[in-house]
């Protein structure tokens, strides 16, 4: 379903043709607690129509991405998970951005790691073939959103724009894990994926305290999505010896934590367990393992055996060629 009037207003917004008052009124109609699923789908279609072209890939890809929006500083779990999955043979093209509501978004960490933020898209197939991994910077794929970003900052409250990011992936991955921080948006995203003909299997997860990832403490809620089917269930982790310490979670601090996890120096922190569990969920969604426990065990072996560290080194070597 599509709201034609809304579609026209969104097209005008993305083209920079709305006044400040008109923009604020439009954004006010798109709040996550009140917007309809029809408005949600209309917004996704309007933004996706502005995507820049990318090279076609011969094989399907996987994405692991979170919406953000929990309001809490945190480690870059899904970015680290991308390296783990690639080390395990999954072809990952992760879609992401800089931080909007946290202190370190995916590309804030990647920049610290030395990854070019705006990688030339024509080189993506070669990079993916050599490393099983690539990253797409959302503003590079959707330049029309730059004008909307300023209006959203002025508006000052969350809207549907805060939650549609992973669904804008321009390569349309058929398999994915998505973290969502808002319960209503989690249900909308699962519904959208279930009706998207390109979806083969996806898991949409909301963790303890509305974190946009599977959490190693508390209860998470998972929507397991296959074509035209959604299975919702809670998930509570086994008792894990998590070392929980206060962290600044700046890009610089997250880079240190990233290195500790991928080199095997950290096997006890809550961040390590978050990476292990979310990578395990990724292996399930990618069809590599049957259960989350098996997937998490696979992730732990890849981290302990040095495969993920080698994956990082290989990727960094090729991304600069």
Automatic annotation (TrEMBL):
Keywords tagged on the record: Glycosyltransferase, Transferase
A GO MF label: anthranilate phosphoribosyltransferase activity
InterPro entries on file: Anthranilate_Pribosyl_Tfrase, Glycosyl_Trfase_fam3, Nuc_phospho_transferase
SUPFAM superfamilies from the UniProt entry: Nucleoside phosphorylase/phosphoribosyltransferase catalytic domain
Keyword Glycosyltransferase: yes
Domain of life of the native organism: Bacteria
Domain Glycosyl transferase family positions: 60-307
Coiled coil ranges: none
Any Pfam family: Glycos_transf_3
Enzyme Commission designation: 2.4.2.18
Keyword Signal recorded: no
NCBIfam families named among the record's database cross-references: trpD (TIGR01245)
Record protein name field: Anthranilate phosphoribosyltransferase
């Amino acid at each position: 379903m599509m709201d034609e009037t809304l579609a026209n207003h969104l097209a005008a917004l993305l083209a920079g043709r709305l006044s400040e008052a008109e923009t604020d009124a439009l954004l006010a109609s798109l709040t996550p607690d009140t917007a309809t699923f029809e408005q949600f789908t209309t917004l996704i279609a309007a933004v996706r129509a502005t995507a820049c072209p990318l090279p076609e890939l011969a094989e399907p890809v996987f994405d692991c991405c979170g919406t953000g929006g929990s309001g809490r500083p945190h480690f870059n779990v899904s970015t680290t998970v991308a390296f783990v999955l690639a080390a395990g043979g999954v072809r990952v093209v992760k879609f992401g951005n800089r931080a909007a509501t946290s202190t370190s978004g995916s590309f804030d960490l990647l920049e610290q790691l030395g990854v070019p933020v705006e990688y030339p898209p024509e080189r993506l197939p070669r990079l993916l073939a050599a490393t099983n991994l690539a990253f797409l910077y959302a503003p590079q794929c959707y330049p029309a959103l730059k004008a909307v970003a300023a209006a959203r900052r002025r508006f000052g409250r969350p809207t549907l724009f805060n939650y549609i990011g992973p669904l804008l992936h321009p390569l349309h991955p058929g398999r994915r894990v998505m973290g969502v921080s808002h319960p209503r948006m989690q249900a909308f995203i699962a519904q959208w994926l279930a009706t998207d003909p390109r979806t083969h299997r996806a898991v949409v997860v909301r963790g303890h305290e509305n974190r946009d990832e599977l959490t190693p403490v508390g209860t998470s809620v998972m929507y397991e999505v296959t074509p035209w089917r959604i299975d919702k269930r809670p998930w509570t982790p086994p008792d894990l010896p998590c070392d929980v310490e206060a962290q600044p979670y700046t890009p610089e601090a997250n880079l240190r934590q990233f290195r500790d996890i991928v080199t095997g120096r950290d096997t006890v922190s809550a961040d390590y367990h978050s990476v292990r569990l979310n990578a395990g969920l990724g292996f399930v969604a990618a069809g590599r393992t049957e259960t989350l426990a098996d997937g998490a065990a696979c992730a732990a072996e890849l981290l302990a055996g040095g495969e993920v560290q080698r994956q990082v080194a290989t990727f960094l070597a090729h991304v600069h060629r």
